[in-house]
From TrEMBL:
UniProt xrefs under Gene3D superfamilies: NAD(P)-binding Rossmann-like Domain (3.40.50.720)
Family matches, as Pfam families: NAD_binding_10
Organism in which the protein naturally occurs: Apilactobacillus kunkeei
Domain NAD(P)-binding positions: 8-195
Name used for this protein in its record: NAD(P)-binding domain-containing protein
CDD domains in alphabetical order: SDR_a5 (cd05243)
Family annotation (InterPro entries): NAD(P)-bd_dom (IPR016040), NAD(P)-bd_dom_sf (IPR036291)
Lineage: Bacteria, Bacillati, Bacillota, Bacilli, Lactobacillales
């Protein structure tokens, strides 16, 4: 049994993630911005909400880790589509990097990043309408890969609210039009957390025909 902190637990993927991780028997700490969001987790099994401020200091973040005996971290936070590039840099890039540095300070090694498909493919960034977002995701991933942490990077295609299928494809290069239900991204992260063979790997995932556990074999 692990103590898992999900950073960005109130996001559209994060909310599914904490619920699904809790059902595996792990203790889940749902990192949120405000205690006004705590009530949303009261009926979830093995889930405890905690304040985790990506605008805070590295020391503040490390204290949340140590106070709750965290041994695995999932970063699923994002500034959201309604904000400008400044908030994308603050949350998606600098917030992510600070959370990695805090993990090292707290002696935590396992770190799972929910990134974005194509974060290494500059060829489409400028025309994506999300140029700043992809830059932030790219360099957050680079920092994680160079951090010395036991990382896994999960890069989903475009996210939908469709029902989960439990099936994905892992691809080598992004193709326009691909998408995946948010719940299946959450399912994939749950599987990654319980499979040490995924350490130091990057997975670009989209809806597909293969069972998640089979993909990870």
């Amino acid at each position: 049994m692990s103590n898992v902190l999900v950073i960005g637990a109130h996001g559209h993927v994060g909310i599914h993630m904490v619920e699904k991780i809790g059902k595996t028997g792990d203790n889940v700490f749902a990192g949120v911005r405000s205690d006004k969001q705590f009530a949303e987790y009261k009926d979830m099994e093995n889930v405890s909400p905690v304040i985790f401020d990506l605008n805070g200091t590295i020391e503040d973040m490390a204290k949340v880790y140590t106070d709750n005996d965290i041994d695995k971290i999932v970063f699923s936070a994002g500034s959201g589509g309604a904000t400008g590039d400044d908030q994308t840099l603050i949350i998606d890039l600098d917030g992510a990097v600070k959370s990695m540095l805090a993990a090292k300070q707290a002696g935590i090694t396992r770190y799972v990043m929910v990134s974005a498909m194509g974060a290494d493919d500059r060829s489409f960034w400028a025309d994506s309408g999300l140029h700043g977002y992809y830059i932030a995701k790219h360099y957050a991933d680079v920092e994680l890969r160079n951090s010395g942490l036991e990382y896994t990077i999960v890069r989903p295609s475009a996210l939908t609210n469709d029902e989960e299928t439990g099936k994905v494809d892992v691809i080598e290069k992004r193709v326009a039009g691909m998408n995946i239900p948010r719940r299946d991204v959450a399912n994939f992260v749950v599987a990654v957390l319980h499979d040490d063979k995924t350490i130091n790997h990057i997975y670009e995932i989209t809806s597909g025909s293969s069972d998640i556990k089979a993909v990870l074999q």
